Amino acid sequence: MSSKVQLSHLLNPEVLYVFSNEFPQLQNSHVQSKPHTHEMIELSIILDGTAHYQFDDQEMNVPKESLIVLNPNVLHAVTLPVQEHYKDLHIGLNHLLLPTGEFNYFPLLKKLPLFDFKENKSIFFETCHTLLKENTSRKPGYKTMLRLLVTQLVVLIYRELENTPIIETKSTLSFGYPQKRELAEAMIHYMNTHYMQDISLEVFSKDMYLSQVYLSKIFKEEVGTSPINYLIHIRLSHAKELLEKTDLPIRMIAAQVGYTDMYHFSKLFKKYYGFPPSKCRYFSKH
Prior knowledge:
- The chain has two domains: 14-162, Jelly Rolls; 179-286, Arc Repressor Mutant, subunit A, CATH 1.10.10.60.
- The strands form two sheets. The chain has a five-stranded antiparallel sheet with strand order 1-8-3-6-9, covered by helices on one side. Strands 2-7-4-5 form a four-stranded antiparallel sheet, with no helix packed on it.
- It is of the alpha+beta class.
- A hairpin with a 2-residue loop joins β4 (51-55) and β5.
- α1 packs antiparallel against α2, α3 runs parallel beside α6 (227-245) and α6 (227-245) packs across α9 (277-285).
- The radius of gyration is 23 Å and the shape is elongated.
- The protein has nine helices and nine strands.
- It starts with 13 loop residues before the first strand and ends with a helix.
- The protein is 42% helix and 20% strand.
């Protein structure tokens, strides 16, 4: 993996879901969602009509072309009043790191999460409509298009925040991370999904703007082992499964789990399991 591959940061958020609600006509007030929270960031976008949001003990009417940024664990409820037409868009995001250091958290301009656009409102909502069309059409490659369009929305939000003094901030640890556990979980998620690539602590350090020593210390405190030992565990577990369930050559299996050096792979495997890869396949068949 080259150092250009970015881990859990602004230009590569994980898109958990994209969905829309539409009501041609509401003749009675409608409770869209009871008080609840999310474990991830949710962008709730009012494309047409009005929604009534409640946050803890505060309430507000949210008009057409408004953005609500819901950080993790923000309690909220939504009611739709009587109206001619209503349409919204909801996007769930995870493993998002802003260049300012916030992880899975958008700094807000006010205590309420209604976002106040200064410059990019028009292009933001044009992008929302394009995204909604892609999600509805489901044409080949639509998932890639959704990810790119969502990234564009995130960048537009960040540009607004970058040029506006932040009133509300969140208590963070050193280097701007709200929780050490979240940092460790970001590394775990990446290793579990990219173990077959060339992963190193140096790449994590560059992508997360933290020293290798600090990253390794946090990871060991939260997980109980070092990042490299965790990666070895993932890779060898997958290799053992492939050895037991397939007839692929050992050299190919080693490459599939991230090892280009056959000798190094065999040495690690024997040290970890107590027998070489060839014996693992033999034991599984006898």
